[in-house]
Amino acid sequence: MLVVKVGGSLGIDYDAVCRDLASLIQSGRRAILVHGGSAETNALSEKLGKPPRMVTSVSGYESRYTDRETLTIFEMVYCGKMNKGIVERFQKLGVNAVGLSGMDGRIWQGRRKSTITIVENGKRRVLRDDYTGRIESVNLDLLNLLLDHGYTPVLTPPAVSREGEAINVDGDRAVAVLGAALGVDKLVILSNIPGLLRDLEDETSLIREIPLEEADAFMQFAQGRMKKKLLGAVEAVQQGVREVVFGDARLPDPISKALAGKGTVIRRRTGDGDL
Ligand code: ADP
Predict the structure, then answer these.
(1) C-beta separation of 135 from 162 below 8 A
(2) Which atom belonging to ligand 1 lies closest to the Cα atom of 172?
(3) Quick one: CATH architecture of 2-267?
(4) Domain boundaries, the chain
């Protein structure tokens, strides 16, 4: 079982990601693709006159402030343009993909956090009406039903709260929960960078390996959204995924390369003695 997440930042080659995954599926692997859509959401938000508002929580993590109007724009891009664009690519490649949000069939159910405490200009502020949250359970029955019948799920936030509201969740943490629930061996997380860099300005400063036990020390290199990506990877390994690989989605065959260890690999030092 292969679980891959492709981000939504600029420069990602979705054709390359889909082509690579299609050939892995056609050679007999079961797979689920999770995707993001941040750059497209930012662009559409600007066009609609509702510029994105990124906020930093008191614990230092960045997220998109998601009021009801933002949630609608978010769904237009993630569940609409991005999800259907990927499904169309797969259909052209002969893969029978089914595009679903985490709300559909309660694939990702979580808890809504309607207020968040943020830090703005050095001061704490409480924001209300936020439709964000954290995933607590995965509907594996529905995913297995699709996979058992030869369909490839293509998943995207939002998730759904217990009360049935749409909630924006972080894609990297969502895929971590999914990978752990499925008990996968490896999780591939692709973005527009070679992996975690020591120096964001220098792509040759790639960190090849992060032992889980030392993950805290590597957090200092991650800025902005990368912090949550690393947090998601750490959570996945803590919950039983053997390896998470951050790979580069600007390259041809990005998934195969990541599976071969190209990128940043996060795993337990003491895992199974293969280090
Ligand atoms: P995606 O939407 O593709 O998942 P994100 O925008 O969430 O991607 O995260 C990737 C971005 O994180 C990179 O484009 C980069 O600008 C930023 N980043 C911050 N710190 C680092 C770092 N130390 N190494 C690599 N990328 C980093």
Answers:
(1) no
(2) 4
(3) 3-Layer(aba) Sandwich (3.40)
(4) 2-267
